[in-house]
Amino acid sequence: MVKEVFVLLAAVAAALGADPTPCCVHHQFTADLLEVGGKINPLLAVPEPITIQSRLYYDYDAKKQRVDRVVENDDGTTNNVTIYVDYTEQVARSIVGGKCVVTSLKQATMQEPCVPATSKFVGTRVLGPATNGVSINSFTADLTKVLNVTMKVSVTSDDCTPVSVSSYGVMEGAFQEITYFFTNLVYSLPHQVFHIPAICHGVHAEIAAPVISPQLLDVIIMGSAASKRVEPLHSGLNGDCPRVGAEDKFSTVDEHARKAPTSLMTSDQDLITYFCRESKDDVNKIRAIYIWIISNRRHLEELAKKERKEGEILAEKFISLTKIVGIQSKMITGLHKAPSNQSESGPTVCGNHCWNVVHLAGNWHVVDCLCGASDVSVESFYFLPDPEQFINSHFPLDIDQSWQLVRNPISLEEFNQAPLISEIAMVRGVSLLSPKSRIMNVHQSLDCTIKDPRAVLTDIAVVLSSEDGLIHNEFVFISRTDVNTYVINATPPFAGNFRLTVQGKLSTTRIETITELVLLCVSVKKRVKKFPKDYETWGIEPKFPDIVQDLCDVPRTFQEVKDGRLDCSISTRTKLEVYASLKWLGDGRTLDDHVGTESTPSRIRLKSVLPKKGFYRVCLFLRRTELLYPVLYLLVYNKKEVSKDTPRLGYSNMEVLV
C-alpha cells in the first residue's frame, strides 16, 4: 500500500509517539492580545511590570501584518503605537506620537502562524468546566540558541486556535517573562486594514533597524521568530555564491587537505595552520575544512566515542575549525530526504539530520559534511550548493524560515509533497518541471516533464511498476519535444497504485535515478495501447542541435490516424531539403515508397499512406552538404487498413534512401 502523502509529518510525529503534533492556525485572522509580565531592568536591577493591549491583524498570504498597541505606563498614562509591516516591500512603518518612522526589515521572512516544528508536547488540559470546557494542548520549545528564550504555546485541541504564548529568558539585555493571551479571534480581516495612512506617504526608510518592540512580532505568532534572528546575522541572502562548481578549481586544495597527517587530528589549531599553507582566501579555507572532514568521517566519529549522532559530530567539528579562521558558521538541524529502495513507496526520511551554514562573501551558504561524505560522486554538490536545489532534500526544523536561504520559503507540507530529485541530476542541471507533487491522483494518464538545459542526459528510461512488483513499461511513451525537454506520458493499464521511476545516463559510466513519483490511478481508458518496446524515445534527435534549430515547432510525437492517411505540417525558419523514411513496426519492413514530403520557405508537409493496421515509425531527414541527418522521429498508429496508394509530392524518397 502506498504511504500517505504526509510521510515527513509522520516522521516528525514518530518521535513524539501518539502525542499531538505541532499545528498551524489559519493564514488570515484578527485578534486582541493582552501582554502581561515583567522584566528586570539591567541598569537599576529592579523589576518592571509589563502591561500592553494590542490588536493584531495578520495576513500570511499577502505577507502583511498590522499591530495597534496601547502601552500602559507606571503613572497611568498610555502610549499608542501602530505598526504596519510589509514583508514584500521589506519595510515596517511605525506611527508614534503623530510621526511616521519607516525602517528596513533587512530581508526578514514572514513566518507561517504555526506552533514551532521543534516543540515538544506537554499535555492536554480542560479550560473551564470539566464537563463542557475547552480542551487545550500545550507545547514547549527551547529557543535559547535562537532567541535566548524558552517558550510555551497553548492551542485548542480541535482546531489549533491560539490561546496563549508564554516566553521567558533574556531579551534586549534584560531578563523578561511575558505571556500573551489571545481573545476575540476571528478568521477574517477588516476592509483596507493594511491601507497606509497619509502621514506615511513619501516617508522612506532612513535607517536599517528592527521595528518597534520586536518581541511582539517575533514571539507572539506562536513562535515565529524571523526578524530578531535575521537582523544581526543575515547581511544578505541569495547573493552570488562563491563556489565555482568545477572540481578542478579546488584540486590543489583538496589534495592538500586529504594528505593532512593523522597527528593533526586532535589539534584544531595545528590543522588550520596546515590548511593555510595552500588556502589563502576564505572559500579555499572552507573547502579545505570540508574536504578534510568528509575524508576523516570515521576517525572523527571514533574519537567522539558515539556520544552524539554522526551528523552532529561533523557539524560541530566544522564550527570549531571555522571559528579558528575567523569565519562565522552555525549548525542547522532538520529533515533529510533520500531515495528509497524498491520495497518502499516514498523517500527515506531522516528526522534529525545536521548540516552547517557558513558566512562567506557577505552571504550565508550551505555545507553538508555528512551527505558529502556519503557518496564521492556528489561530494562537491554539498559544498556551497544552490539553496534552491538544497531545499529539495533538506528542510530546517527551525522557526526561522530564512535559514532555508531561498527567496520564497516553503512549508513543511510543500517540502513533503515535492518530488525528490537526485543530487547527481541537480549537479548537472536536470530538473523536473511537472508534476510538482510526488504523489499524484491520475485519471487515465499523466505527463511528466524533465528539463535538461545542458543536454547531458542520455539513454533516458522509465520504469512503471505496480504494487505487485510487475513492470508495465509498454504503457509509457517518452518524447523529446526539443533538444532540452523530455515529456513522459504514463497510462496505467488498470486502477491502482504505481511507482514511476525516471532514469538516465548523467555520466559515461552508469544509469542514475533522476526522480520517482507515486501514481494513484483512479480511472483508466477503455482500451489502453501498448507502445512498441524496442523504441524508447521519440521526437527530436539531440545529436544535431545546430540542424534541429531550423524547425520552429514539432508536431505531436505520437499520432493516431483512422483511415490510414497521415498528413501533418512542421513550421520552419527557412526552406529545407527534407526526406522521410517509413517503417512498419509489425515486422520491421521499410515502406519508403509510401511516404513523401514537400518543402516551402515556411513549412514542411509530410504525407503518408499506411497500408496495414498497427504502429509505424516515421523518420525525417535534413540534408546538409552531402549528408542526411535524422532530426525527428514520429510514432504513428493506424487504426484501419487501406489500399497502397502512394502519395506523390514533388519527389520520391526511394532514390535517396535506398
Strand order, main sheet: write it out.
Answer: 6-5-4-3-2-1-11-10-9-8-7
Give the helix tally: 14
> End-to-end span in angstroms?
54 Å
DSSP helix fraction: 10-25%
Total of domains: 4
Please tell me how large the radius of gyration is.
31 Å
Structural class: alpha+beta
Sheet having the most strands? 11 strands, antiparallel
Shape: globular
CATH classification class of the largest domain: Mainly Beta
The CATH architecture assignment of the largest domain turns out to be: Clam
Low-confidence blocks of residues: 1-18, 207-246, 646-658
Arithmetic mean pLDDT: 80
CATH topology of the largest domain: outer membrane lipoprotein receptor (LolB), chain A
**Beta strand count:** 31
Amount of beta strand: 35-45%
Topology:
Elements: H1 7-14, E1 28-40, E2 47-59, E3 64-72, E4 78-86, E5 91-96, E6 99-104, E7 120-127, E8 134-143, E9 149-156, E10 162-171, E11 174-186, H2 214-219, H3 227-233, H4 251-258, H5 268-275, H6 282-295, H7 297-303, H8 310-324, E12 329-338, E13 348-360, E14 363-367, H9 369-374, H10 387-390, E15 394-396, H11 412-417, H12 423-427, E16 431-434, E17 439-443, E18 446-451, E19 458-466, E20 476-482, E21 485-490, E22 496-505, E23 511-523, E24 537-540, H13 545-548, E25 558-561, E26 565-571, E27 578-584, E28 595-599, E29 603-609, E30 614-624, E31 627-638, H14 654-657
Parallel strand pairs: 17-23, 20-24, 25-31
Antiparallel strand pairs: 1-2, 1-11, 2-3, 3-4, 4-5, 5-6, 7-8, 8-9, 9-10, 10-11, 12-13, 12-15, 13-14, 16-18, 18-21, 19-22, 20-21, 22-23, 24-31, 26-29, 27-30, 28-29, 30-31
Helix pairs in contact: 4-6, 6-8
